[in-house]
């Protein structure tokens, strides 16, 4: 059990902050759709449109907010964004129409995206470079534990099915971000990074990092695969019972909570990160092939195939996470961690926004062939990360060669 706990100090405090708001988020995620449809009275299509707009805005604004964390100090920026997220969640309690819903959702997505970037800049300032991937693994493990606990709390609200129960969940989520802000204040302050030469948003001019982010976004299609693609496949194309969707989600969450830290220990530098990503791509191809077999199989065979595929999926997920964390941090220049991580983090909302369209087209439209194409896509993109990482490494070395004489001139 001690291996599951991060080291005492900043890493443990960051994990506690992660736990505090992920419990609220877990409850929010499982109840929000029903709250907005049954209590607020919005049509599902309008909810989807509003969230797509919100996350598109959040993904764009996350980059300048990450830069703000670099320039003004990541701890204070993270605290303010945690408070902004709490305010956004609380505002959902008074939303009664579509446009106010979109406004509240935009504030929520913007604050969440900026908070993620500020936290990464804070971690970079408090944790040694060689320990960052391990620290992120602890945070991911903590996140999953909190989401699982929160989902259980949300389940109580779903069982009650009342307006009061749903609103209590939103209040708990808002309070969880207030608690997160208080916990972040316990961390040491990280001084603002000095201004660096170049454009205000230099990351947009960094072509290797941009390509790396794009490729990582494709690999992040594994997220809507678990939450949307696989549930649709199970319920519409297999003989497996619907309850298996919940069981496989619990399997995934529990495995990440228990084994993500151990998996991340194999990743220490860009070379080991690239190897982890290649292994992840091969496993994703195998995952898709096994899932495809469940479509026309009898119930028992379908159950076995879906279980085996889910085990392969979670191993691939943990390897992909560890590899991408390492590359995302290693190729962000000192002093621009928040800006670069804000950009790298846009892959999550983009994958969640476009992923449902891609996956439903492939899996529901093309069936077994769609699974094969998806698996090949994961494999090709995983292997493409290697050459792009070498490109980014060379560009980083060239950049350091330019900046060192400038720094010497200032001295």
Task: Give an overview in words.
Mean pLDDT is 88; it is low at 402-411. It is globular and about 60 Å long. It has helices spanning 10-40, 44-72, 74-91, 98-126, 132-160, 163-184, 207-219, 222-237, 244-264, 270-293, 299-330, 337-344, 347-366, 368-410. It is mainly α and 411 residues long. Helix 2 packs parallel to helix 4 (98-126) and helix 8 (222-237) runs parallel beside helix 13 (347-366). The chain has 2 domains: 1-193, Growth Hormone, Chain: A, CATH 1.20.1250; 205-411, Up-down Bundle (Growth Hormone, Chain: A), CATH 1.20.1250. The chain contains 14 helices and no strands. 82% of the residues lie in helices and 0% in strands.
Largest sheet: none
- Write down the secondary-structure element order: HHHHHHHHHHHHHH
- Strand runs, count: 0
Q: So what's the overall shape?
A: globular
Annotated CATH architecture of the largest domain? Up-down Bundle
Q: Low-confidence runs (pLDDT<50, min 5 residues)?
A: 402-411
Structural class designation: mainly alpha
Radius of gyration: 21 Å
Average pLDDT works out at 88
Helices and strands in order:
Elements: H1 10-40, H2 44-72, H3 74-91, H4 98-126, H5 132-160, H6 163-184, H7 207-219, H8 222-237, H9 244-264, H10 270-293, H11 299-330, H12 337-344, H13 347-366, H14 368-410
Helix pairs in contact: 1-5, 1-6, 2-3, 2-4, 2-12, 2-13, 3-4, 3-6, 4-12, 5-6, 5-9, 5-11, 7-11, 7-13, 7-14, 8-13, 9-11, 10-11, 10-14, 13-14
Kindly list the characteristics that best describe this protein.
Growth Hormone, Chain: A, about 80% helix, 2 domains, about 0% strand, disordered C terminus, mainly alpha
